[in-house]
């Protein structure tokens, strides 16, 4: 994958991820039964750069999933122990060439909507933001303002 962005949406393809112990891809999600194992994919990370990661956890009945940039010196992220949207920010180290989602031995649940990208100075801060839109025609005449529209930034 590109060092800039990786997006794996609701349409999982088992060929794009390496499935470790306990992982399957069914029902449009990566599912894990209890037993330690990692779900991984190549990511050409640049040492020193920060990567923002986001994923949605559902159906969790126990345990955690921990994102990690691996290869060289592993750079583990924060263990995720709750259903819903989770965000993380990990600084890559020399040799990091893979993104992993590491399941604890007691993790049972599903992962979906995984996204990872390199953070730049132009990135909005992570969290909830709102935008308003105002249409404008070719002559510069404006239409009615609409919004707010909520954006979740990973």
Describe the structure.
The chain is mostly beta strands and 154 residues long. 0% of the residues lie in helices and 53% in strands. The strands form three sheets. Strands 1, 3, 4, 6, 9 and 11 form a six-stranded antiparallel β-sheet that branches. Strands 2-5-10-7-8 form a five-stranded antiparallel β-sheet, with no helix packed on it. It has a two-stranded antiparallel ribbon with strand order 12-13.
Compact description:
With 154 residues, the chain is mostly beta strands. 0% of the residues lie in helices and 53% in strands.
- Give the overall pLDDT as a whole number: 88
Radius of gyration: 18 Å
Q: Give the strand tally.
A: 13
Shape: globular
Biggest beta-sheet profile: 6 strands, antiparallel
Q: Helical element count?
A: 0
Order of helices and strands: EEEEEEEEEEEEE
Classify the beta-strand content into a percent band: over 45%
Helicity range of the residues? under 10%
End-to-end separation: 18 Å
Poorly predicted segments: 1-11
Structural class: mainly beta
What's the SSE blueprint?
Layout: E1 5-8, E2 18-19, E3 23-26, E4 29-32, E5 37-42, E6 50-62, E7 65-70, E8 75-76, E9 84-91, E10 98-103, E11 108-118, E12 127-133, E13 146-153
Antiparallel strand pairs: 1-11, 2-5, 3-4, 4-11, 5-10, 6-9, 6-11, 7-8, 7-10, 12-13
Task: Write out key terms for the chains shown.
single chain, 154 residues, mainly beta, six-stranded antiparallel beta sheet, five-stranded antiparallel beta sheet, 13 strands
């Amino acid at each position: 994958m590109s060092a800039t962005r990786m997006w794996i949406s609701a349409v999982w393809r088992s060929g794009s991820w390496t499935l470790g112990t306990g992982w399957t891809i069914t029902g449009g999600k990566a599912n894990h039964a209890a037993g330690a194992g990692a779900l991984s994919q190549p990511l050409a990370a640049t040492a020193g750069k920060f990567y923002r990661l986001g994923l949605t956890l559902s159906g969790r009945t126990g345990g955690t999933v921990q994102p990690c940039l691996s290869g060289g010196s592993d750079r583990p992220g924060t263990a995720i122990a709750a259903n819903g949207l989770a965000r993380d920010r990990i600084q890559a180290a020399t040799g990091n060439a893979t993104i992993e989602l590491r399941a604890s031995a007691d993790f049972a649940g599903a992962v979906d909507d995984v996204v990872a990208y390199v953070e730049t100075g132009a990135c909005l801060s992570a969290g909830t933001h709102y935008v308003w839109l105002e249409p404008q025609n070719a002559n510069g005449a404006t239409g009615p303002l609409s919004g707010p529209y909520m954006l979740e930034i990973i």
